[in-house]
Amino acid sequence: MSKVALAFDLGGTELRAALVDREGRLLAFASVPTLARDGVMAVVGQIEILAETVRREVPDAVVAGIGIGAPGPLDPKAGIVLGAPTLSGWHDVPLAGILSDRLGLPVRLENDANAAALGEWHFGAGKGANSLVFVTISTGIGGGVIVDGRIMHGRRGLAAEIGHMTITDKGERCFCGATGCFEAVASGTALGRRATAITVAGDGSRLRVLSGDAEVTGRDVVDAVRVGDPMAISLLEDEARWLGIGFTNLLHLYSPDVLVMGGGISNGFDLLRETVEATIRNRAMPAYRDVPVVPAQLGRHAGLIGAASLILRDEDETALQVSTGENPDNHTETEPVGTREAIHG
């Protein structure tokens, strides 16, 4: 069997693992709730167990290496998680080195949003594009940017923190401490918070019924729109307008061939699309208005597939260099995504 990658998607809620082949197919998959409050080594132990679990499912697989997407901020070149807010005690953790020592394989670490962007670019909605912006609208807002065939990392891998660009001077304060962040007004959490604020537990509203009289989620709002609830329709219209404003900024900043929307709120893409596109037409300069905004195709596995591509594309590049007589370690900053330096910095 050809070589595969062992991929991990490390989230604050769930840790997922897979064996992924060169076509982006998951050959084995396993997940567990992340021991996010128990410290670094507790999670490392979970990673070791999941690695063994998925490798048992495909015992003849030849694993080329490990790709892992993790919450930022992180430094992909150094392989260090700098300070993941969803993981207690994760400050300056040399995760790539720890896993390489524990599992005996080369490790590539990447921001989870960048990993998802790579997955959609190689195998999903952005396949064939030269430039892409991927935006995930979920609990928060994150994203990854590929420009001219290269993932944008910036200093210490901190580029393209999409959720924290300022799009208004109003609204509730973001967890980062600022007011008016894209995430603070347009995330699924923000949408659910607005829905919760205009309803009351036990009021019989469709939103509260769908939430089980608990706090309303963004997903509840989308579901209520699908059954024609007027309150939910108004909320989602506002959500689409905020998304359109944020997307317009991203189009002006990066001029991608395509903008891909993922995350839980993308399940309502068909309901959001008309207002998002109208907002872009009204706000974007003419040259940017024809950029397609499309839903992600890989769903919850985008990050795993993208993390795997860090290993498999690197493997392909090294093999090509060996076959042509080049020195695999002689890389330059001008190489495209898939080569060692482009992946790491």
Quick overview of this protein structure:
With 345 residues, this protein is of the alpha/beta class.
What does this structure look like?
This protein is an alpha/beta fold and 345 residues long. The protein folds into two domains: 3-117 and 313-344, ATPase, nucleotide binding domain (Nucleotidyltransferase, domain 5); 125-297, 2-Layer Sandwich (Nucleotidyltransferase, domain 5). It has helices at residues 40-57, 95-103, 112-123, 182-186, 188-197, 206-211, 218-226, 230-254, 269-283, 302-323, 340-344; strands spanning 3-10, 14-20, 26-33, 62-70, 74-75, 80-83, 91-93, 107-111, 132-137, 141-147, 150-151, 258-262, 293-295. The strands form three sheets. A five-stranded mixed β-sheet has the order 3-2-1-4-8, sandwiched between helices. Helix 3 crosses helix 10 (302-323) and helix 7 packs across helix 8 (230-254). The two termini are 31 Å apart. The relative contact order is 0.15.
List keywords for this structure.
345 residues, alpha/beta, Nucleotidyltransferase, domain 5, 2 domains, 5-stranded mixed β-sheet, globular
Blueprint of the fold:
Elements: E1 3-10, E2 14-20, E3 26-33, H1 40-57, E4 62-70, E5 74-75, E6 80-83, E7 91-93, H2 95-103, E8 107-111, H3 112-123, E9 132-137, E10 141-147, E11 150-151, H4 182-186, H5 188-197, H6 206-211, H7 218-226, H8 230-254, E12 258-262, H9 269-283, E13 293-295, H10 302-323, H11 340-344
Parallel strand pairs: 1-4, 4-8, 9-12, 12-13
Antiparallel strand pairs: 1-2, 2-3, 5-6, 6-7, 9-10, 10-11
Helix pairs in contact: 3-10, 5-7, 7-8, 8-9
